[in-house]
Amino acid sequence: MTGIFKTNKKDGTVYYRASITYKGKHISLGSSESVEKAELMYRTAVKVVKTDCVIEEYQDYAGIPFKKYITLINFRDNGIYIKNPIVLRRTYFSYYLSPDIELKFDMEDLFYYSEHAIMKRGRHLFVTAYGLQENIMSRYGIGGFAVPGKDYIFENGDDTDMRYSNIRVINRFRAVRAVKEGLSTAYEVKIHLDGDWKIGRFPTEVLACVAYNKALDEAKKHSLKPRSSYIYIDELNARQYAQIYSVVELPQKYLEYLDQIH
Questions:
Q1: Contacts of 133 by beta carbon, 8 Å cutoff, 6+ apart
Q2: Rounded CA gap, 204 and 230, in Å?
């Protein structure tokens, strides 16, 4: 049958590869040890590109993998072949994890997600880059420890809308938390050394971050080895950082604690 190719594995086992050529593009559909299943993949793919089927109808076209179904629909409708399950919209694109999960991204992320497949484990979405798993929230400056609704929010309430305008970061750093003080916001700093030590509240996030780094420095001077890492503050140059560092004060109780355990 057209689009079906018989081949052999290294051990001699026969299997069948299915593919389709559409708009001059040769597209692999998958393989099967059953010729009937391979033929079904081919017939289903032909039906997808020749009809106006939509994503919600996938159950009727399950002869091919869902990822391939989305790829063919996007190629059919937009004329651009993308190997990942992406559909181009007018001002954004959709990445389908399943028939029920559609993630929405800004067009500026199209190249990245065309090359990096998104995977889901529990509530976490990640890609594999250079052999390492990378949480996609890191692209927004959100750490893997961050809690949705506390450290960042989706402005429209839709946690599948990953467009930059919809994600507001509240707390960028694990050791620094924004807290309300009347009508204003302050930034509370804690460091973990055999329990949490409160370093203080500061009027700006930058001051809070410098205070945290200074508290970490003091702990290391006393031969402690905190698991925490320094906060890199890209808003400050070296001179500005040094000026703030010199005037930030640490709690006396914290300094006394360090002296006692030294």
A1: 126, 127
A2: 18
Pair 179, 185: CB distance under 8 Å: yes
Q: Print the domain residue range for 67.
A: 1-81
74 and 87 within one domain:
no
Please list the residues that pair with 16 across neighbouring strands: 6, 32
Domain count, the chain: 3
Sheet hosting strand 132-135, strand order edge to edge: 119-121, 124-129, 132-135
pTM recorded for the entire structure: 0.76
Q: Give the domain-ending residue among 52, 81, 110.
A: 81
User: Is 62 found in the same domain as 52?
Assistant: yes
Instruction: Give dist(CA 29, CA 17) in Å, integer.
Output: 8
Same domain, 72 and 104: no
Helix (H, G, I), strand (E, B) or coil at 145: coil
- The reply to whether 112 and 148 lie within a common domain is yes
Q: Say which residue the tokens 């993308």 belong to.
A: 82
**4-40 pLDDT, tens digit each:** 999 998 888 999 999 999 999 999 999 999 999 999 9
Angle at 65 between CA 60 and CA 71, to 5 degrees: 95
Write the CA distances from 208 to 144, 149, 193, integer angstroms: 21, 21, 18
Cα–Cα separations (whole angstroms), residue 171 to 93, 98, 159: 28, 31, 17
